[in-house]
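Our preliminary data section would be incomplete without showing what the modeling component actually yields. Below, a chain of 87 amino acids is followed by its predicted structure, encoded as tokens that our downstream tools consume directly.
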Amino acid sequence: METTVFKEREVVALLKQMVEVRMHAQLPDKPGEADRIALMAARFSDTSLPKYEIVDPKTKKRIDVFYGADPVGNRFKAFLEKNLQAR
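Predicted structure:
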């Protein structure tokens, strides 16, 4: 999605209204990566990738989570729009 959907003009405009924080977690085949997988499991109760989380910057509480890839981008755009409107 980063090479396709994230570069779409509409998605770029939506993401500019948010603050991006990234956590890259891969399969635990290198030292330290097992810790990131454990953190993902604790935070999301799920280790599937990718996942995108909307967090309230004041309370640090999770507002919504988008699980999985969306090659076309329609579901992801709707996810962003819904959460921006809810603010």
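The chain has a mean pLDDT of 85. The longest strand covers residues 62-67. Preliminary results of this kind motivate Aim 1 of the renewal.
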